[in-house]
Structures are given as C-alpha cells and as structure tokens.
Design brief:
Length: about 80
C-alpha cells in the first residue's frame, strides 16, 4: 500500500478529509492535493499529520523496541537549520 493510501486510511479512521490537512501542514488545499496525487509526503509531513490526528509515527524493531518521531523532532531539526 502506498504512503498516500495509508494517509487516506488514517484520515478515514479519524473521520477527516484530505483538505483538513491544509492547516496542519501549513499549505494550500491545492498543495495538499498535489502531495496526494504525487505520493510525495515528507517525513516532516507524516509527523505533522500523525500529531494532528493524535497518532504516533514510530519505527518498531522486531524485538519490540521502538523510536517515536514527534513534532518536537521537527522543531529541534529546524532550530539547527536542517529541514526534516
């Protein structure tokens, strides 16, 4: 399943529409549509979407250990001058 389809599934579960991402991503509705049509979500986008829906974005190892990516990671990266 593509990232776009997974984002659509998340939105469906949260009873949201793609256009609802305009505010959390800080972009226009047309730019949101472009991300869906091009399947071009960045890590930063996925963190923002997860945060706005009250979800966690995480990497999970086969032994159960996990690393969660949060909105704070975006802020820290931006402060250092490295876009995420």
């Amino acid at each position: 399943m593509s990232v776009t389809n997974k984002v659509r599934a998340m939105l469906n579960i949260a009873e949201k529409k793609p256009s609802d991402l305009e505010q959390c991503l800080g972009i226009s509705v047309q730019a949101v549509r472009n991300k869906f049509s091009r399947d071009s979500f960045s890590v930063s986008d996925l963190i923002k979407i997860s945060d706005s829906l009250g979800w966690e974005l995480q990497f999970k190892a086969s032994d159960g250990q996990s690393i969660v990516l949060t909105i704070e990671d975006i802020k820290k990266t931006t402060e250092r001058g490295n876009p995420l």
